[in-house]
């Protein structure tokens, strides 16, 4: 046994999670799992770095070969976490970060109950729309699908272990590190971010009410 932990991070698209995780883990030795997906690369995305971009057929073969730790469909494309690299890293004592949507996160919690599920809330649904438009990598109809998907994702954040908000980047980095360190040490220093806590529930309610 070692004390390596599996962290599952979920956040609706356009939530600024890429920037946040980049800041938090800049000089860290964590293993960042690279998912497989059947969606096309966006401009600037590199195969084998951001994702393994694969065909539907290859994705089906990997399911048949039981090669995924979890997999799910999201806005008409398939996404999955290759199992072996995650298990290898954990057995080598290295923390693992999965950046996946909610269905996959709950599959992981079922299989590995000690996994820590962290949800990153956007300040509002409007803000997601604004950020996706600004990013400009998706067409208007895809943006609207992702925005409506976001509300459904946020509604599931009540079932996570921890929830933080990415409004101000520096605050979010600090809160993320607080959760990460508390999850590692097992102390209660991040209990104010627990999803079951009344203030956290109110925060989630507010984001959903202002959708
Ligand atoms: P995007 O297309 O914006 O890169 O990702 C869409 C959604 O799929 C995001 O919520 C992202 O976290 C999630 N996702 C990425 N990789 C995986 C994966 O391996 N499994 C699951 N279940 N979701 C993933």
Please characterize this protein's 3D structure.
By secondary structure, this protein is α/β, with parallel strands linked by helices. The protein has a domain at 6-33 and 95-209: 3-Layer(aba) Sandwich (Rossmann fold), CATH 3.40.50. 44% of the residues lie in helices and 18% in strands. The protein has a 5-stranded parallel sheet, with helices on both faces. A hairpin with a 2-residue loop joins strand 5 and strand 6 (77-82). Helix 1 crosses helix 7 and helix 5 packs antiparallel against helix 6 (140-155). The radius of gyration is 17 Å and the shape is globular. The mean pLDDT is 94. Guanosine-5'-monophosphate (5GP) binds next to strand 5, strand 6 and helix 4. Guanosine-5'-monophosphate binds next to strand 5, strand 6 and helix 4.
Summarize the topology.
Blueprint: E1 6-10, H1 17-24, E2 31-32, E3 36-37, E4 52-53, H2 56-64, E5 68-74, E6 77-82, H3 83-91, E7 96-99, H4 102-111, E8 116-121, H5 125-135, H6 140-155, E9 162-165, H7 169-185, H8 198-209
Parallel strand pairs: 1-7, 1-8, 2-7, 3-4, 8-9
Antiparallel strand pairs: 3-6, 5-6
The protein binds guanosine-5'-monophosphate.
The site of guanosine-5'-monophosphate has 14 residues, from strand 5, strand 6 and helix 4.
In brief:
By secondary structure, this protein is of the alpha/beta class.
């Amino acid at each position: 046994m070692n004390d390596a932990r599996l962290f599952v991070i979920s956040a609706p698209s356009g939530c600024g999670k890429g920037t946040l995780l980049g800041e938090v883990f800049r000089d860290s030795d964590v293993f960042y799992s690279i998912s497989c997906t059947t969606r096309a690369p966006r401009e600037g995305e590199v195969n084998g770095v951001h994702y393994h971009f694969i065909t539907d057929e290859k994705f089906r073969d990997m399911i048949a070969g039981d090669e995924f730790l979890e997999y799910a469909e999201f806005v008409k494309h398939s996404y999955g976490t290759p199992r072996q690299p995650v298990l290898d890293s954990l057995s080598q004592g290295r923390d693992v970060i999965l950046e996946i949507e909610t269905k996959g996160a709950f599959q992981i919690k079922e299989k590995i109950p000690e996994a820590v599920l962290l949800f990153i809330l956007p300040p509002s649904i409007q803000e997601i729309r604004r950020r996706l438009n600004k990013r400009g990598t998706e067409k208007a109809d895809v943006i609207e699908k992702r925005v409506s998907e976001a509300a459904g994702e946020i509604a599931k954040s009540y079932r996570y272990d921890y929830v933080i908000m990415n409004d101000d980047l520096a605050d979010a980095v600090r809160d993320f590190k607080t959760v990460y360190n508390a999850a590692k040490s097992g102390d209660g220093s991040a209990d104010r971010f627990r999803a079951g806590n009344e203030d956290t529930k109110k925060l989630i309610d507010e984001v959903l009410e202002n959708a």
